[in-house]
Each structure stands twice: as structure tokens, then as C-alpha cells.
Amino acid sequence: MKHPEPRPDEPHDSIDDHVKRWLPVLPHLDPDIEGAVTRMSKLSRHLVRVREQGVADYGLQKHEFDTLHVLAGRGGRATPTELREDLGLAPASVTGRLEALEQREFVVRTPSTEDRRRVDVELTEAGRAAWRSALDVVGREEHRLLGVLTPDERRQLSDLLRRVLLAQEAQARPASPGETAGR
Questions:
Q1: Are the C-beta atoms of 131 and 58 separated by less than 8 Å?
Q2: Please, are residues 141 and 50 in contact by the beta-carbon 8 Å criterion?
Q3: Are 124 and 106 in contact (CB under 8 A)?
Q4: What element of type H or E holds 90?
Q5: 84: number of Cβ within 10 Å
Q6: Burial readout 86-107 (b: 16 or more C-beta within 10 A, e: otherwise)
Q7: If DSSP codes are grouped into helix, strand and coil, which group holds residue 111?
Q8: pLDDT tens-digit profile of 72-96?
Q9: 8 Å CB contact between 120 and 114
């Protein structure tokens, strides 16, 4: 596929060089797809590194941050079962995480007011502060990167990525019984 060279007055990034290097090797390579996918991958890796460093800078391990994040996303209160489902973990793994977070006074576990057999997990102020501090590091970097776009461009980017993700999610979703009957 022949693709026009970028204009000399347009800015170039490292991925432009990557695509240019691969086009002679893979002549049917779609440079726009290769460029978009490689840029998304590079940006994702960068944000993961920023997140890991931000979490470490505030004395948290990744799994601790993830647990606090899920708990905060549930309004600061959840059951161990809800946390297990959100985190995709085995019950014993959640128990271990909660014990460690409770020792650090980031969460408290209390008997449920609705069901005596159940325990509720609640985020403490210390836990919320640790989570928020680490989250702010990532948020600042996300705003720095996407701040080069106008609000309309950010909305357009989000909308375009939603369409791509919907295609992936539709492929990953198991067919319902009614969908397989006609095949």
C-alpha cells in the first residue's frame, strides 16, 4: 500500500521512523494502523511506568493501590466478594490483601449492618490519602499528555477509541444462546 510521506513541515515522532523502516519490509503494511497501534502501545507503556513509579513513590505496592482504587471507585465501601470480582482474584488473595491494608490502617473491616455473616470493607482517611496521592501522579501525566489536544479533539479521540474498543469487546464477548442458534 502506497502511503504519502508526511509533509516536511509536519512534526515527526519516533513512530514515524518506525513505520518508515517497516514499509519496505512489509509493503502491504497499513501505515496508519501501524502508527496508531504502535503509538497507543508506547503511550500505554509510558503511563504504566508513571503509575508504577507514582505508586512506589507513595509507599504503595501495585496490588495495594489497585485494591484501594477499586474500593474508592465503590464509594469507599465494599464487600470482599465485590472486591474479589472487581479485581478478578481468588477469595484467599483478597483476604491477604485486606489483612495487609488493615495493618497499614488503610482499610477497616467491620461486620455488615445488613447481614451478620458478611464483612464490609471501608477505606480509611489514611487509605484514601495514600490512594489519592498516587493517583494524582498519574492524573497529572495524563493531563500533560492529552493537554496538547483541544477539548473537542480529546472528545473525538475518546469517541474513536470507544469504537475500536467496542469492536474488540464484541469479539471477546461470548455468543449468547440466541446468537448461536442461527449458525
A1: no
A2: yes
A3: yes
A4: none
A5: 19
A6: bbebeeeebeebbeebeeeebb
A7: strand
A8: 999 999 999 999 999 999 888 898 9
A9: no
pLDDT digits (tens, 9 = 90+) for 112-165: 888 878 899 999 999 999 999 999 988 999 999 999 999 999 999 999 999 999
Q: What are the cell numbers at 143?
A: 493531563
Q: Return all residues near 158 (Cβ < 8 A) that are at least 6 apart.
A: none
* Cα torsion 42, 169, 136, 68: sign: negative
Cβ count within 10 A of residue 31: 21
Owner of C-alpha cell 472528545: 155
Cα 138 to Cα 56, 126, 134, 142, distances in angstroms: 12, 19, 7, 6
Sign, CA torsion 135/97/53/169: negative
> What percent of the residues of the chain are helix, what percent strand, and what percent coil, each to the nearest 5?
65, 5, 30
DSSP class per residue in 60-86: --HHHHHHHHHHHHTTTEE-HHHHHHH
Residue 128 one-letter amino acid? R
